[in-house]
Automatic annotation (TrEMBL):
Residue sites binding ATP per the record: 27-31, 92, 126, 177-181, 208-213
Description of activity control: Appears to be allosterically activated by the binding of pArg-containing polypeptides to the pArg-binding pocket localized in the C-terminal domain of McsB.
Higher taxonomy: Bacteria, Bacillati, Bacillota, Bacilli, Bacillales
Gene: mcsB
Short name of any one Pfam family annotated for the protein: ATP-gua_Ptrans
Protein family per UniProt: Belongs to the ATP:guanido phosphotransferase family.
Lineage top rank: taxon: Bacteria
ATP-binding as UniProt keyword: yes
PROSITE patterns, alphabetized: PHOSPHAGEN_KINASE (PS00112), PHOSPHAGEN_KINASE_C (PS51510)
UniProt-listed Gene3D superfamilies: Glutamine synthetase/guanido kinase, catalytic domain
Phosphagen kinase C-terminal domain sequence ranges: 24-255
InterPro entries: Arg_Kinase, ATP-guanido_PTrfase, ATP-guanido_PTrfase_AS, ATP-guanido_PTrfase_cat, Gln_synth/guanido_kin_cat_dom
Protein's recorded name: Protein-arginine kinase
Length: 361
C-alpha cells in the first residue's frame, strides 16, 4: 500500500458487503478516545506540544509495535491536499474534524483500511475499527488490542471516579463509541422508521446520518450509536447496542417480507424505475443518486435484481461523493458539473461491472 492508495480506490474492506447480516448492516464501528496525561487537549495545545504528541503516538507504528496486527502506514495531514482529505472523510477513514486540523494532525492506517488511528483530532488519540456487516464485538476486540498497545507508551489521562478524560464531556468515562450503519429502506417506505427511531433514543442510543453528527440520513442509511459513556462498562454499552441493533434488523426484515407479500408489483416498479434512471440519467444530484442506489440495493438484497453485486452498490455510494468524483475524473468541478459526472460514472459502472463483484477506478 502506498501512502496515497486510499485515494485510488473507493472500496475499503468494510464496504465489501460481507459479514453477518450484511444485507442490512453495512458496517460496525468502534471508536476509542484517549488523551495523554499532563498534556493539554489538542484545542489548547501549542504547536510544539501538538508536535510532541504526534511524534510520540505515531512512533508506536513506526517502531513496529502494531506489526502483529498487520501492515500500517503513518500519514501526516500536512502531506495531503484538500481533495485527498475530503476523500478520506468520504471513505469514513478520518473525521471532518481531523481533515480540517492543520496543527500536527496525523493518522495511522492499516493496509485493508479497517483500522484508522487518528492523532491530534478532538482528542490526542482516536482509535477506529470498521468491520463489514454486524460485527460490533469483533471490532471492539480489535480496538481493545490496539488500545492496550498504545497504553504501553502513553500514560492515559484517567480519573478513578470519572474514568478516561476527554475533550468533550460526552465521551468521558469509557471513551468508547460503538456504531452500526444500517440500510433501512423498508422501515422508511412503510413509515415505521420514526416510531422505531424514537424508541431507540429512549434507551440511550443516538441516530445519525451516514457521516455522523449533523449529517442527513441519505439513501436510507442510519448510524445507530451509544450516547452514554459514563457510568456503564464497555460490555454494558456494547450489549445494549447489539441488542437494539438486532431488533432493528428483525423489524427491517419483517417489513421487507411484508412488502414482498402485499405489494410486490409496486415494490418491483420502484426498484426497476430507479435502476432505469441510474442506467440512463444524464444528471444526478447526490440526494437523488443516494435514494436510487438505495432502491436498487434493496432490489438486489430481495433477489429482484440478480446481475448486480451489493458490493458494487456500496462502492458507488462512495464513488459518487463530491471528493471522489473529482479524484476519479482528475478535475475540479462545480456542483452542476459533479451532477453530470455522477450520472456518467453510475451509467458506466452499471453497464460494465454488473455481476463482476466490484468496480475499479
Amino acid at each position: 500500500m502506498t501512502k496515497r492508495s486510499f485515494a485510488q480506490h473507493a472500496l475499503s474492506d468494510w464496504m465489501k458487503g460481507t459479514g453477518p447480516d450484511a444485507d442490512i448492516v453495512i458496517s460496525s464501528r468502534i471508536r476509542i478516545a484517549r488523551n495523554i496525561r499532563a498534556h493539554p487537549f489538542p484545542m489548547l495545545a501549542t504547536n510544539e506540544q501538538a508536535r510532541e504528541v504526534m511524534e510520540r503516538l505515531t512512533s508506536v507504528a513506526e517502531n513496529g509495535r502494531l506489526d502483529g496486527l498487520g501492515k500500517f502506514d503513518t500519514i501526516e495531514l500536512s502531506e495531503l491536499n484538500e481533495l485527498e482529505r475530503r476523500v478520506l472523510v468520504e471513505k469514513h477513514l478520518i473525521s471532518p474534524n481531523l481533515a480540517n486540523e492543520s496543527r500536527h494532525g496525523a493518522f495511522i492506517l492499516s493496509e485493508n483500511e479497517a483500522v484508522s488511528i487518528m492523532v491530534n483530532e478532538e482528542d490526542h488519540l482516536r482509535i477506529q475499527c470498521l468491520y463489514p456487516g454486524f460485527q460490533i464485538n469483533e471490532a471492539w476486540e480489535q480496538a481493545s488490542r490496539i488500545d492496550d498497545i498504545f497504553e504501553e507508551v502513553a500514560d492515559y489521562a484517567y480519573d478513578e471516579r470519572r474514568g478516561y478524560l476527554t475533550s468533550c464531556p460526552t465521551n468521558v468515562g469509557t471513551g468508547i463509541r460503538g456504531s452500526v450503519m444500517m440500510h433501512l429502506p423498508a422501515l422508511v417506505l412503510s413509515q415505521q422508521i420514526n416510531r422505531i427511531l424514537s424508541a431507540i433514543t429512549q434507551v440511550g442510543l443516538a441516530v445519525r446520518g451516514i457521516y455522523g453528527e449533523g449529517s442527513e440520513a441519505l439513501g436510507n442509511l442510519f448510524q445507530i450509536s451509544n450516547q452514554i459513556t459514563l457510568g456503564q462498562s464497555e460490555t454494558e454499552i456494547l450489549d445494549n447496542l447489539y441488542s437494539v441493533a438486532k431488533q432493528i434488523i428483525e423489524h427491517e426484515r419483517a417489513a421487507r417480507g411484508k412488502m414482498l407479500e402485499e405489494s410486490r408489483v409496486r415494490l418491483e416498479d420502484r426498484v426497476y424505475r430507479s435502476y432505469g434512471i441510474l442506467s440512463h440519467a444524464m444528471i444526478l444530484d447526490s440526494k437523488e443518486a443516494a435514494q436510487r442506489l438505495s432502491d436498487v440495493r434493496l432490489g438486489i438484497d430481495l433477489g429482484l435484481i440478480k446481475d448486480v453485486s451489493p458490493q458494487v452498490m456500496n462502492e458507488m455510494m462512495v464513488l459518487t461523493q463530491p471528493g471522489f468524483l473529482q479524484q476519479v475524473f482528475h478535475e475540479k468541478m462545480s456542483p452542476e458539473q459533479r451532477d453530470v459526472r455522477r450520472a456518467e460514472l453510475i451509467r458506466q459502472q452499471l453497464i460494465s461491472k454488473s455481476d463482476h463483484g466490484g468496480v475499479s477506478t
